[in-house]
């Protein structure tokens, strides 16, 4: 797909199930064939995209959910040649999420092999490739007929440590570059921390073990985990006992040690102790916030910190021209009026996708809704402009002019840009994108679309309570920094609660 300024190339991710190697740290073998296919596709792009009007020296990857996690793996994989791509857009997905990587791929390969009547070798470390050969002979119909599910909050098919595409010590190389030096613990990565004893902060030479070479734009929505709740729970809320079951399930499946301490820390941090009676709606909202932070927000913010913090990389001639990398973070906080969820629930996982791809501009397509308001059309144009600018230049602020807006709203909206500041691990500034009530009433018939730039020392999210006002106010405070709170669950009590000194600035289309 091509316009005057950019060429869009689409390729699908593939789920892997061919990793039967029980000891990738001793005998590395390629098993992430889905990621290898993506790398092959990128080589094709490098060789051929110029024929379609594209620039092989200006490649941006964008993915959502598991697609974003795959891109994150490509960013840190040693098998990816320098210069194969140059920027990344991660939407609601990170390599550090519990669902991003298969924790025990051999277990699922063996289950598939037994269903396919494959011979299980006595010495798996030596003869595991016999299982892979047997599974390769299976037809797609045979594989799809097998029901194989992972525990809640984990995944059965997807990337896994193979020692080649994803190194056995990828967590060490990636996570020990964390600016504070703290080693976080998210899901399977927590198990790697405990099993492989990877606590070092720097290599012996003192250099950072991972150096980022890519511009990065990443973002989340306000209520990422809402899709895990039933229609009844969404409508009526949940009681504390169900909250406890859900959180205990997450902790049991994602962590190995100190399970009780982790569970009670989560409940403590996501309980509004000022309320004397627990309301089912408030309990549901707090549980959504906890699971959203655990599975999406904290891991993605962690990746953003790792990729933006610390000294900038020293690029070699092979890497191309020397340039500093840029990082930008957004929070999409708008719920489509004619969407699938009841109003007031907030934006859910995937809520931003129709705006990223311009569905409101063309009155919907595919499974996206087809009835959009004028304000939603304008919001889509803003989102598309940010994404397109970043893909072209690495800066979403470039060319924010009235004449570059799409014709759908050019006649009825005046674009007033706000500067989207770069993200860094110290200040953690991000752009909040959504509809905001204006400080003054807009002109009759003019939609008000807000993109609020929020400077915050804490990551987005919260206790489920969101405030609306017609005046700029301090952002509702987080009970703690999501990132440092989740990464320190097993090491120390939560820090004292304090309100950051932040204010919203408005971007209005009116």
Automatic annotation (TrEMBL):
- Bias category Polar residues: which stretches? 470-480, 489-504
Q: Where are the transmembrane segments?
A: none
- Which intervals hold domain Carboxylesterase type B? 16-437
The record's section on Gene3D superfamilies has: alpha/beta hydrolase
Q: Which InterPro entries match?
A: AB_hydrolase_fold, CarbesteraseB, Neuroligin/BSAL
Annotated spans, Disordered: 436-510
SUPFAM superfamilies of this UniProt entry? alpha/beta-Hydrolases
Highest taxon listed in the record's lineage: Eukaryota
Query: Which UniProt keywords are given for this protein, alphabetically ordered?
Result: Glycoprotein
Q: Which family does it belong to?
A: Belongs to the type-B carboxylesterase/lipase family.
Q: What is this protein called?
A: (diamondback moth) hypothetical protein
């Amino acid at each position: 797909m091509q316009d005057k300024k950019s060429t869009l190339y689409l390729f699908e991710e593939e789920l892997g199930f061919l990793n039967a190697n029980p000891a990738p740290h001793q005998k590395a073998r390629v098993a992430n064939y889905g990621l290898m296919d993506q790398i092959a596709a990128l080589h094709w792009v490098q060789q051929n995209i110029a024929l379609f009007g594209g620039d092989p020296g200006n490649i941006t990857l964008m993915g959502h959910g598991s697609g974003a996690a795959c891109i994150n793996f490509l960013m840190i994989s040693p098998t990816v040649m320098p210069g194969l791509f140059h920027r990344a857009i991660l939407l609601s997905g990170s390599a550090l999420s519990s669902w991003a990587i298969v924790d025990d791929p051999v277990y699922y390969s063996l289950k598939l092999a037994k269903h396919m009547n494959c011979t299980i070798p006595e010495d798996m470390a030596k003869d595991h490739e016999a299982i892979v050969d047997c599974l390769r002979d299976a037809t797609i119909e045979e594989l799809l007929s097998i029901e194989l599910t992972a525990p809640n909050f984990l995944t059965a098919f997807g990337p896994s440590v193979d020692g080649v595409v994803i190194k056995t010590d990828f967590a060490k190389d990636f996570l020990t570059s964390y600016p504070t030096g703290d080693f976080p613990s998210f899901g399977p990565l927590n198990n790697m921390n405990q099993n492989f004893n990877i606590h070092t902060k720097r290599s012996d030479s003192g250099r950072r073990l991972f150096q980022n070479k890519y511009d990065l734009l990443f973002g989340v929505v306000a209520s990422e985990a809402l899709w895990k709740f039933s229609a009844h729970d969404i409508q009526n809320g949940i009681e504390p006992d169900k909250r406890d079951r859900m959180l205990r399930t997450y902790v049991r499946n994602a962590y190995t040690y100190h399970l009780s301490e982790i569970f009670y820390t989560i409940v403590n941090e996501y309980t509004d102790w000022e309320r004397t009676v627990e309301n089912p709606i408030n309990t549901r909202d707090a549980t959504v916030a906890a699971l959203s932070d655990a599975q999406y927000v904290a891991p993605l913010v962690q990746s953003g910190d790792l990729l933006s913090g610390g000294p900038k990389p020293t690029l070699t001639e092979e890497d191309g021209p020397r340039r500093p990398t840029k990082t930008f973070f957004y929070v999409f906080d708008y719920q489509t009026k004619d969407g699938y969820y009841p109003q007031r629930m907030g934006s859910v996982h995937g809520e931003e996708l129709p705006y990223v791809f311009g569905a409101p501009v063309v009155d919907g397509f595919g499974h996206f809704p087809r009835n959009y308001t004028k304000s939603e059309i304008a919001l889509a144009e803003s989102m598309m402009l940010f994404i397109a600018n970043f893909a072209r230049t690495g800066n979403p602020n470039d060319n924010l002019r009235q004449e570059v807006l799409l014709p759908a709203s050019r006649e009825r909206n005046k674009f007033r840009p706000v500067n989207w500041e770069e993200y860094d691990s110290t200040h953690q500034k991000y752009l909040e994108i959504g509809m905001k009530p204006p400080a003054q009433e807009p002109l009759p018939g003019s939609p008000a679309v807000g993109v609020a730039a929020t400077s915050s020392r804490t990551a987005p999210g919260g206790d489920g309570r969101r405030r609306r006002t017609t005046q700029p106010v301090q952002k509702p405070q987080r009970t703690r920094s999501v990132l440092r709170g989740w990464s320190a669950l097993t090491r120390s009590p939560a820090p004292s609660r304090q309100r950051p000194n932040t204010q919203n600035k408005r971007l209005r289309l009116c």
